[in-house]
Amino acid sequence: MFCPQCGGESAEGQHYCRSCGTNLKVIGKVVTFADAISKSDGVPTKVKEKIGHVADEVSRAMEKVNSEIARGSGAHRRWSSWRKQKTAEERREKHLTTGTIKFFVGGCLSIFLYFLTHALQLRLPAEVIAAVPFAIDPVVRVFWLIGLIPMLSGLGHIIAGFGIKPERAKEIQSPDASPLRIDVPASHKTRMDPELTIVSRNEPPPSVTDRTTNILDRDQSLRTRETG
Questions:
Q1: Cα(144)–Cα(114) distance, rounded to whole angstroms?
Q2: Phi and psi at residue 2, in whole multiples of 5°?
Q3: Residue 60, SS3 per DSSP
Q4: Is 106 exposed, middle or buried (0-12, 13-18, 19+ CB in 10 A)?
Q5: Which candidate, 24, 159, 171, 196, has a CA 20 to 30 Å from the CA of 112?
């Protein structure tokens, strides 16, 4: 069996097309029923033709439904992807642009209608004026208020645009860190001035037994005083 939507070949017993997803089960039943009717001898020729015509109509209807579903799903996917791709800045810019255009268009329309309605003089027959249940002149005078509709719509877009907050920058800028320096800067180095250098004679390091000798000498002098 071949799919009426994409023309792909499908195996027997397969209910849906693997390429486009068309329901092959219903189409297979219609085709089988039409073949069985056409092969039978007890059915008149006109009935066979009508059944074949109905089978063709069902096939075309299924193709149309499947194409509409595929087109609708594709348009929905494109619309969803387009809506997801729009950032806060883009939506804000769109609202502000649309609102500004509508606001000025409505303002120009209101001014035009205001001067037109006030300069317009209606000369209607008396029976027409009497047949109208309201006064015509006041209605014509306030006809310029129609221009306020696009003006208010534009004002709403402008307010919506200002209400959208721009997204914060995702990139975190790290502060400029000073590079690691192993060598000591020249300002912190100890500068040796040859004029301030004091020359001292080399003295031998003190001996470890100097302190003990002084203690023994002190003890001996104390004993001499006690005996004397």
A1: 5
A2: -110, 140
A3: helix
A4: buried
A5: 159
State the pTM of this model.
0.39
Backbone angles phi, psi at 9, to 5 degrees: -80, 135
What residue ranges in the chain does DSSP mark as E strands? none
Q: Is the distance from CB of 154 to CB of 100 less than 8 angstroms?
A: yes
Distance CA 155, CA 103 (A): 6
Query: Residues 147-189: pLDDT tens digits?
Result: 899 999 999 999 998 888 877 655 444 445 455 555 555 554 4
Q: How many CB atoms lie within 10 A of CB 105?
A: 15
What residues contact residue 26 under an 8 Å CB cut-off, 6+ apart? 58, 62
- Residues with Cβ < 8 Å from 54, sequence gap 6 or more? 34
Q: Output phi, psi for 16, to 5 deg.
A: -130, 150
